[in-house]
Each structure stands twice: as C-alpha cells, then as structure tokens.
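Researcher: For the record, we're logging two predictions in this thread. I'll number them. Prediction 1 follows.
Model: Prediction 1, sequence and structure:
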Amino acid sequence: MNLEAVNAFWKETLDELATVPMEAEVELSDPGGVMHEAVKTFQNHAVRFRSFEGKTIRAWYTVPIGVPPAGGWPAIVTAPGYFGIQSLSMHYVRHGYAVLAVYPRGQGESSAEWELEERTKVTWHLEDRYRYYYRGAFADLVRGVDFLCSREEVDKGRIGTWGMSQGGGFALAIASLDRRIRAASSEVAWPLHFRVSAEIETAPYGELCAYLREHPERRDAIMENLEYFDAYNLVRNITCPVLVNAVVIDEVHPYRTIMPVFERIPTMKSVVVYPDIEHGTRADFARHTLDWLDRYLR
C-alpha cells in the first residue's frame, strides 16, 4: 500500500476531527482524593467530550495530588482491550503522571453514548474505510490528546501512550498519527498486520477470519480497506521512541503479527520477547514501561 494514500486518508480524517468542538465536561469524582497505603495520592475525574462525527466519548482522567511540577505533569493516554475493559493506570499516576483512560466509541463506558448497530468492531462497515469502526476509534484517541493539551496542569511537550492488547494497537496507532506523542509502549498489540492475522481463527481475529470466509467475493476490497488501519503501514510515520513486547506462544495476538510491525518502526525502539507465557499483561513489563516513559518524558 502506498503510504502517501494512507497518510492522505488520515489527514482528511483528522482535519474533519479538528472541526468538531471538544466541549469537554470534567467532573471531580472524589474531591478528597483517593487513599493508597494510608496516603491521599490522586484524584479521579469523569470526562465526556465530543469527537469525530460528533460522537460523545467518555474517559477517566486521573492526576496526582499536589502542585504540578514547573511546566505541568507528564501525561499518558491509554485505551482498553477489545472487550472495552480497562483498569485505571494508577501505577503511573503514583509515579507522577496524569493519565487519561479513553473509552473509544461503543466501548466500555462510552457504550452508554453510542453502540454499534450490528456486527462487531472488527467487522463493522469493513468494506468502507470511511465508515469503518477504527476510523472513528483512532480519532477518539487523538481527541484524547487534544484534551490533555487543553489542561493547564499537563506539560504538552511530555505526552506519551501505553496500552495492552487492543490498547497496544491503539498506542501504535496514536504514535503514528499524532506527533504530540513523545514516547509509546505497546503490549501484545492488536489489531495489526492483517495480511497475516486475517487467517487467525482465535478470537478476536477470528471475527475477521470468519467474515472473510463467509464473503469470499469481498475479500480483495476488504483487505485493501484494512491497509489504511494497519499498524504495519502506519508505524512508518512514528517519530517517538517505542517499546513493544510480544509472546512467542500467544495465539490470541501472535508473535508473527507483532514482530514484522516492530521491524518497520523507524525510530529508537526496543522489544521484550516472552517465550512461554500466555496472552495477558505482565508486571515486569509495567516496570519496563515506566522506565521507558521516564527516560523520554522526564
């Protein structure tokens, strides 16, 4: 796929996003702060803002208690796994980061604002890149960066991203699409490298595999459409340092889909490979991520 065509599509998308006023609503949910180990360490805020196509998106915004450093807190934007579940990243907040946990359209708490009419996220309007689910969803994360940049307590020059599973795919996408991202960490990422992953039958790639099997006459058009959303193409635009992990025996988001994408990242990068652990998050990788973000955002 011609990268110029991919970039033109995303420029058009983000130009359209820029015409939508954010109209953010921020509600402090615990004015007294949240206790951790007998110390009030952070505050949570429920957030709603408008995004691409005027959709309302929900998020949680968590900041450390105390006076921000000169210039503001470094910040992280993150997204959930495929089933819309994410824990708030208190680990990073306790180490002095403001964290925006975005629920893209139709996922998690944002499902209260809008839901898919049919199919699944990976197959919704699969034949039309202008209506495909991940066009709006990726734009929702860019709008999350807009939100962080609007906050006076955040240092706009120190924004990073982290995510696991689908969230890891979002981390690679937002680092590719938004140069305000200065560091990224992606854990067992999905969705990506569709030319390979379209043959995988385990969930959630299995939704795509089954759809292509049911509609063989649409396969060529669908695969061309997916090129616009594939990190295999998008990561060539990344300008920030990127940390990635992969698991050799993971058949949910396989090593063979992640490593070819990693190899195409043109910037400072590092990969942690786990040989014999199933799909899931890893406590030691959270430490690696924190060290990576501290190195490039502090």
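Researcher: Logged. Prediction 2.
Model: Prediction 2, sequence and structure:
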Amino acid sequence: MYQIAICDSETAELDKVEHMLRGRHSPLAERVFLLKRFTNIEDLLQKVELEHYQPDVLLMDISMPGESGIEAVRKLQGMGSCEQVIFFASSAEYALAAFGVAAVSYLLRPISEKALFQALDKILGQMQHDKRRYVLFETNCHVRRLALEDIIYCEAQGKKQCIYLRGGECVLLRMTMTRLREILCIHREFVGIGVSYIVNLKHAESWDRQTLLLDNGQEIYMPRGAYRGLPALGGVESKEISQRLFVCCRKQICRECRSAAYMTEEHKNGSGIGKGE
C-alpha cells in the first residue's frame, strides 16, 4: 500500500488534486493507497515525528503560510522521511531551490492531469525498483530511519528496547515492547518470541522447540508453544519455510519438525536424519 500526503493551505486545491489522484486514469487507479490531507505544515511535521508517519509521496505547495514548502521538506528529510516530493507553485521562482532538496517534479499551477500523472509515473516506476521499506523511530531526541531488512531482532532491556542491525549496530529506543510490536509486527516477516523478543524471520537460519538461530549467530530461547506457530506467525514464503525445515533435518532435529505443516518430502517418506519416534 502506498502512503500519499498532500499539503496545501487551500481546500479547493486539495480537493482538485485528490480528485485527480482518485480518477480512473490516475497511475494510482490500480494500486492500493492511503491519502492524507494537510492544510498546514505543523500538522504534517507532528504526524511524522509523533506517529512515525512516512509518506511514500508528498505533494507540497511551495508557498505555505508561515514557512515555505522547501523548508518543511528539509525538516522532514532531517527526520529521515520524505524521499519523493512533487512541488506545486505559481511561478518558476523557486524551481532551483526545489531541486536542491531533490524534488522529483516542480509543477506550475494550474496543475494538469498530464503533468501530475507523468510525475507520479516516474516516482512509482522508481519505487518498483527500490524494494527497501523503512520505519521511523525516535532515538535520543531525533528521528532515525531504519530499513526493515536491516533489522535482525529486537530485545527488551528494562524500560528500553534494543534493535540489533546488520553490521552489529544496536539502536536503543525508549518505548514499550508492546508499542514496538505494533510498529514492526504488521510486516509479515516480523514475529514476537515470548515477551522479550521480536525477530525478523528473513534473518533466521533454523529453529527447533528450544532455540531460534539467526544469521548473525545469535540464539534466542523459544518459550513453550512458540515453535508450533512460528512459520504461520512469521508469514514468510512457504518455500523459505520448507528450506529452513530441511536445514533442521540436516541438523538432526527432525523429531522437532514432525508436527509442522511444511515438512520436506524426504522427511515425510521417513528417510530424514533423526526421524521422530
């Protein structure tokens, strides 16, 4: 799903752009998207900072009251947000400055469907080639953007949560584990293990009823009953699960796999290593 944000102080302009985006000829017509409207910059900045809102595309009026759209985009980029921006303007006066903050397009009013759709086509085409997804976290009074694929696992440490990344970095967060689960576990590769861990199953090498082994060498204890539901909760592709269960068989723990839904054919035929009783 795409997150689209429009920021314009004029309600009529918001209505016009929204109508275009929802039209049957729009590049978004065949895509699922959520559109949010903002009539002032302060509301947009608060949404990003306090609620970790991260629009995939921002359509911004460059002449907002009190603060220019360009300055607002600079602030958003400082928070790790707002990579794809389309500016609306009444003249070409600020075009150079707009492209200085890496705007994708600078469209002159009145906005035409053709110009808007061309800009969106460019963005959506680029996004198809860039599959990385991100999440925003507040760390030490600033917002940090983390790629989901870089997160290996999260561990509760008292009142703080520690996110372990590829490369060995640990990011400390001041939030509850419950809130962290709400943010991460909506993504199919993340699953909670007990009350203290969240793991990214795309970094899991193998698991049995006692431990889960991650690709950074970390072993996580599996609470009672966690093993049986792990593949379904993780939501990873069944092919990946089959491959991992085959690894389990190679590690002589097939008796732990025998009740799993995704058994290998070798295991089903009774020739797997360490076959269950």
